[in-house]
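Sample intake sheet
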Amino acid sequence: MYTLYFVIKLVYPAGMGFGDVKLAGVLGLSLGWFGWSALAFGWFAAYLLGGLFSIGLLLAGRAGRKSAIPFGPWMLLGALVGIAVGDAVGQWYLGLL
């Protein structure tokens, strides 16, 4: 996760702080300990939860397109979701194949 977030930081420096990049490294190691399913779902959940929150702020008129929204809390929440249900979601998804 660290490498991917670092590339995002290099491509668009204004879009993400380096603290998020460092946090991604720690969370990637932690989620990797629980398995690939926890890692993948935890990463996805961070973007999903942060995106839903951002859409809510836009609809409520409390933020605009250019508003800065911290991503670190959503990374942490996504990691917790990945640990809690990542394996179950991974097994369900693989069962569909």
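Comment: Residues 46 and 65 are 19 Å apart (CA to CA). The chain has a mean pLDDT of 94.
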